[in-house]
Amino acid sequence: MAMRDDESVTHERTVTVKSGWVMLAVNIAIALAGIALLLATIGSVPELAPGEIGFRIIAVFLVEALAVLMFVGHFTLQPNESRVLILFGSYKGTVRRSGFHWGNPFYSRSRGRVAHEGHGESGKHAGGALHALIGRSMPTKVSLRAHNFNSDRLKVNDKNGNPVEIAAVIVWRVADTAQAVFDVEDYESYVEVQAESAIRRIASLYAYDQGEEDEITLRGGGDEVSLELKKEVQDRLETAGVLVEEARITHLAYAPEIASAMLRRQQAEAVIAARTKIVLGAVSMVEMALRDLEAKGLVELDPERKAAIVSNLLVVLCGTSEAAPVINTGTLYN
Question: Which DSSP symbol is given to 150?
Answer without folding.
Answer: E
